[in-house]
């Protein structure tokens, strides 16, 4: 099930978290999809800006605490992606 949708509008990429039943909280699969979306944005020189939004009238409640409690929480390591999505690079 896809929890992140991307829509291109000229040079803008609209990235929408689509988990409104949990106020768009980010679990591991959603974090991985966000990372993929922003990697694709970074790789596309025709895109100038990405806008992150949430479906259903809520932006994002943050990390999905129920997923964390069940052992299916976001990835937390010293290298690679961060717990909510891709780490920014300088």
* Total helical segments: 2
**What's the count of strands?**
3
CATH topology name: GMP Synthetase, Chain A, domain 3
* Uncertain ranges: none
Strand order of the largest sheet: 1-2-3
Would you mind describing this structure in some detail?
The protein is an alpha+beta fold and 90 residues long. It has one domain (4-69): GMP Synthetase, Chain A, domain 3, CATH 3.30.300. Helices cover 23% and strands 20% of the residues. Strand 1 (4-9) and strand 2 form a beta hairpin. The mean pLDDT is 86.
In short:
The chain is an alpha+beta fold and 90 residues long. It has two helices and three strands, in the order ββαβα.
Write out key terms for the chains shown:
single chain, alpha+beta, GMP Synthetase, Chain A, domain 3, 3-stranded mixed sheet, 23% helix
SSE blueprint:
Layout: E1 4-9, E2 12-17, H1 28-43, E3 49-54, H2 65-69
Parallel strand pairs: 2-3
Antiparallel strand pairs: 1-2
């Amino acid at each position: 099930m896809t929890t992140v949708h991307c829509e291109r509008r000229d040079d803008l990429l609209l990235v929408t978290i689509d988990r409104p039943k949990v106020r768009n909280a980010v679990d591991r699969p959603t974090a991985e999809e966000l990372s993929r979306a922003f990697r694709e944005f970074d790789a596309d020189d025709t895109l100038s800006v990405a806008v992150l939004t949430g479906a259903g009238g809520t932006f994002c409640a943050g990390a999905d605490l129920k997923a964390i409690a069940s052992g299916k929480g976001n990835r937390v390591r010293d290298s690679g992606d961060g717990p909510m999505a891709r780490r920014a690079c300088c």
